[in-house]
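G.,

No rush on this.
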Amino acid sequence: MVIAISVREIVSFALSSGSIDTRYVSHSRAMQGTVIHKKIQEENLKLIKGYSKEVYLTMDFDFDKFTLKVEGRADGVIEDGGVIVEEIKSTNTNLVYIDENFNELHWAQAKFYAYILCEQKNLKNITVRLIYYCLLNDETKTFEKKYTKDELKEYIDFIIKQFKDIADYNIEWKDRRNGSIDEAGFPFKEYRKGQRELSVAVYNTVREKEKIFIKAPTGIGKTISTIFPVVKALGQDKIDRIFYLTSKTITRTVAEEAFKILRKNKMNIKTITLTAKEKICFKDEPKCNPDDCIYAKDYYDKLKGSLYHILKDNDEFSRTTIEEIAEKYKICPFELSLEIAKWCDAVICDYNYIFDPTAALKYIFEECTDRISILIDEAHNLVPRAREMYSAEIRKSDIYKVKKLMTGKAPKLSGILGKINSIMVSYRRELEDDQIVQKIITSVPKDLSKMLKSFIKEGDEFIAKNQGVEGIDEVMNLYFEINGFLNTLAEVDDCYINYVDTSDRDVIIKLFCIDPSTRIKYKMNAAKSCVLFSATMTPMDYYISLLGGDENSYRMFLKSPFDSSNLGISAVPLSTKYKDRENTIGDIVEIIHDTVSLKKGNYIAFFPSYKYMENAYKLFLEKYDDINVEIQNNDMNEKQREEFLSKFEDKEKNILAFCVMGGIFSEGIDLRGDSLIGTIITGVGLPQVCFEREIIKDYYNNFNGQGYDYSYTYPGMNKVLQSVGRVIRTETDRGIAVLIDDRFFTNKYKMMMPREWENMNFVRDKKELKKKVEEFWKKN
């Protein structure tokens, strides 16, 4: 059996020691480092004879029970007479403070690559070159060491030895895992309608190293139907690891339950659910250093002594399990979860762990990715999330706040921030003169970019020398914000629009990623296979174009397993356009009241905005007092959300809840049976008109002539589909949905309606609506 591991991982495992100390380390630096690598490599290609960049190297180490396959990419290899292995490291540390012994891990990676080359090319000696690039002043510092093959072999043997014990256990585990997966069948007696077809399609996608986009309606059991075939592929050694990505806690829980079902079905499989650092940290706020946190102190040493036992004793690493283990060994729960993820068969996590350029799992994903399969649940949510991930902004208010804090404490830092503040003030004056509040700019001015870099340089020294002083947290937050902005600025291309916004008594300069598709595609193409699925992936071409697919991407449309007659769905032709709302809100409130009065039970009335919802709610209370009414608040915390949903479980209380489409209660909640028997949806869900929406519209008008649909129509209809989808959750559910808007009667919207709405009633007025709803309840 083969265990594949990257050079970076095995070196880090063998040589890391001491404590976690991130007082002054930004994850965004990795992105910045990537840009610098490319820059140096391109220069070397032009200047150095025999230079090759990103040289893939791999070597097998044979043991009794397994073969260890170590692989990675050397930054550069020079073959011109002798052979030189080049390793590039970017840093914010002044190069004056860096000598050849600055970090043993940096040498270790290069030495591993050097040893592989010695073996492959039968070299007796080789040179290792380590280049440090200072991000603050674009200066470089180079060190070189010559090694014999025997010296490198002794060094590499030591590293391999540190890894072997846990590798032996990993092989034993994989043998047991694969045997159990091979023997186990589908965990239920029979497939639901559509489940077998879905499972076969997913398995073939993994086997053929492709990506597939799937519209899978509620009730098919898409979670188990996508996980089961990928686990089967795992057991056949077609892949090494599964990533199950989702943006919501409830779908994360459903994935955990699916893996539990497989374990009950005698499948041995290790899984972990990753929780954000801010949520899982034992401290009130994460301060990852040995002075402020006992869980950071001596972390690497404590981990080495406990990791084998942790993996041996557990198969399911939920948040609770991770917290218990971390408390037992007094180690950081977040860092522990990242380490355990390397040894698990399946990782359940948020989208950002794969797609965000600053994600914590980037180092796993960038190496050995051709053995990874990615399952993306509720994939329609990845579009807005990706836009956020790849965009960046700076705010004048943040600049000015830190400037005031540093006045008198750090004159140079305060002076730089003063200049940045002045540049942003000049933007505000310019927009005031033009009598506008937002403006697209072709590029970020060079003087601003220069000052931002100066802040990073000066902030670097200030943070390093002033830990614990008043205002240091604010300086660090701004440091990371500006660093991220500069990193994104280096990557800006035709998929971006830069703009200035002064609408909220602030000055914001934003690098807005309109089209994230190329960046999503880059990540997905690195994996062996990707499965993207959602109950509301409509229109399919829209989502394929934004999520990195193309005309050759596999696509699949599944029918709902539920009888379409279980849902009584009707559309009423009333205008909900902004200009007509005052005139029609009375009729809408009356429709809501009359509909919920026809049968006792719980209902949700969805609206496209908080203001519209609140106006309807107030009018409803003025006119009616015979129904228990609740309303969604704008800033509910997790406890308040749970309390809100718990009211639907009280069958004695008939609840009418006023909620917002696209909000926390229109997606990802699972109210089965009598917990919810109807929804009334007002409007077509169009996002509110704003500057960014107009930018998206203009961009896609130029790109494909579908700007309005890409910016407004399709995202809005997705909210409608999600809201209707709250009603029928199981094959025994019965319920009604009422769509209030005359636009639902147009061909454009009819074309977007799913097949399970085949019994849609397009009624003339509220009188006919009442008749249709009454008829439905008489039959059900």
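When you get to it, here's the other one too:
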Amino acid sequence: MPKVKIVSDPYRRTTKFFYMGTDWTEICEENNPNSSLLAKKYTEGFFPFKAREIVDELLDEYGDGSSTLEIVFEGPDDEWDELQDVCSSEALAPLVRLERSEKALANARDILPYIREVFDELYPIIAGTADGSAETLDRLRKFRDASSDMIPICVVGNYSAGKSSFINALIGTELLPSGDRPVTARIFQIERSDQQDRASIGFKYADESINVTFTDDGMKVSPSAARGKALDEIAKAVTDGGKSLAERVRAALGAINSFREGKDEPTLSDLVKVRVPFGRGTDWGSGKKIVIFDTPGSNTNSNADHVRVLREAMRGMSDGLPIYVTTYDALDSNDNADLYEQISQMPALDERFAMIVVNKADDADIPEGGFTKEDEEWVMDTVVVRNLYAQGIYFVSSIAGLGAKTSGDFADRHYDRVFRRLQDQYEDPEDKYYTRLFDYDLMPEQLRAKAVREAEACDNRLLANSGLFSVERGIDEFASKYSAYNKCFQSETLLHELIGQTDARLEESGAALESSRAVLSADLDASKNELLDELIQLSISTCEDAVEGYLPNMNEWAKQGVAASGLTSERLREWERDITATKRREMGAEEKRRDAEGKRAAVTANLMSRMQNAWDTRDVLGIAGIAKSFASDWSAAREAEAQSEEIFRGADREASDDLLARVRDQFDEDIARLMQEAESHSKGYWEERAEVSRKALLDLVSDGTDIDDERRDALRSIIVDFRSLSLEEELPEISEIRYPFDPNKLWKAPLRVQYNMELSQRVSKWRSVVELAHEASFREWLHELTDALSLGAVDLNPELRKKFDSVVNTEREIEAQRSKRIRLRSGEKRVSGYMTWQEG
């Protein structure tokens, strides 16, 4: 049986393929230069979108046609599920046999909360290294975004494609002006308001930040002293625009959109930020921080400038989802030949997940009942699809979708007229032109099958048939599952960049230190300067050695202590066996089984006995009684077996619950003990390093050749009599570390893997708390001792004391930055560790 392996690492954006000879060999240019599997779309694309194509290529290149192809998979659970869906299809099931490797990656959505915890711990350090440059501020924004739930959605396309109507449908309210002529002249950044009775619009006018707030009481402009033609036009439009919150915001946006600066009129910014409650019939997007960007048509005259504004607006964001809105008759248009390049070069957007929305599908000349194979091939070969196809192509009637959320209630007459014409077509199965637009969607086969099932199960038929439900589902899938891989990957990349930035700051501080030293040296005689320098340098070096050695020392403890506390397969099986046996014994399961077996055996024995008795007595009439007795015995035996099986199932269910309770109790014991051990081990380390530092300073003073005896004795007394390091302060309580262990049922990793990973992560978090507190106490202790020695070593006048303090402060700034770098590297290793392969 031929055998191949897929190794998918979505964190590194790589997919590799292997074939089995005498051993696993990676498929590469050297051994298979013509392999289609080496195409960039497979090796760097997102595996779930290409899974079916990859399996087809593997069958074509490595299947022998006479036996099934064995495919071994290494990767996260989410992708394993997708591959199983692909290979369980009627066409592929007879051709392949799947096997899961023992090596696996955690799902990004499972580890992202832990990575965010690392971010929370490191953010004060990172913010403290900020130098105010645009590059640094950009990196900090990205750092915050990588640890947040923000999902940017960028809607692009031709001006006539109905982008604004599509966004209105998504948010469930008539917010943006729409029409067949270009109506979006600016970029609107739209977020969901937390309150149903509050909305706001923000923009820059005359180089001043303006915020317009809408409530039930009216409209308020901040700052209140702001004046200008644009604000007058907004106020007039709102007064004439209607009474509801949405109508007033829509009127204000219309005024902003149509505003044109006169010769001496201040400029109004191209970026307008809108925060508005989504429609009451819109659950989509709740619980997620989605930011939607509505852009002017890509074929408008000012497109180049708007691309610049959009790039600036999304600066610092990441994991953005590009949605290209077009119409069916424009799929093969060359109007947007450079659109793909613009999207692919925008760091905030990930073109691997691009969605194509074919809007106004109600007016499109699409074939009744769905696409033929030839139709699909034509669509897939159009200009737009060739350049942008990734996640899928969705056919949508935005007005029908919006009407599904507003129950057909529209303020816009055009919307109302179109909806009334379309409603029966998408809602009434008996209508002559009844249409399910989701039947036309094109996407990878296993994703399409799932999308159709979910659309058919949607309880809002109009929403599902309008195609909008499937788009929202695709966005949700990206937001909840796919984007997390990028966030994890970027977190590691950003930490690496920030470590480089810290190194650069260290070099700058080193140069400043040399300058300060030179100034002080010029004013001290050689012997005193040398002694001071030696004291400070020894203090710094012993501190750095202690900090450098701390993590390896604690890691070695963790390697032994945490590993010894981990849950093993043998231990889990032993618990399961003992608990199950106890529970079955308590519930009398074995007795019931023996009783059932006895009754089953009695059926045959009783039948034979009665038959023999009837034969011996020649009781022909008794045969009917034999049949009746047999039926009664058989029924009793079946009932006893059913009772036995139910008792066994009940015992096993209770045993499963008891086993989980046992695991949780063990977890509580393990985490409590390991927290105490971590704190105790850390104390021992720093106390030992304090005495090592004390001895090093004592040796320096004792061996100094240019120190008079009186001063030497005084310095030795300072060192010997100096207080011991105290680490008895109470550490902050981190409540979530002691939360009960709750296995993630959606994560298919074995219980022991989840247990050990959770235990390791919580201990790691506690270690970071202990590390910060103990290291700070050690530094304070060593600094106090060094200062006392320095002042005892030389007699400093006020001017020299000032210079001395400058040198010491610079030295300690460098020391602190080195400590930050160590902590950043530790965080980087923790983040990388979450994304490494686990033995399943």
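Residues 623-703 form the longest helix (81 residues). Residues 586-657 form one domain.

Enjoy the weekend,
O.
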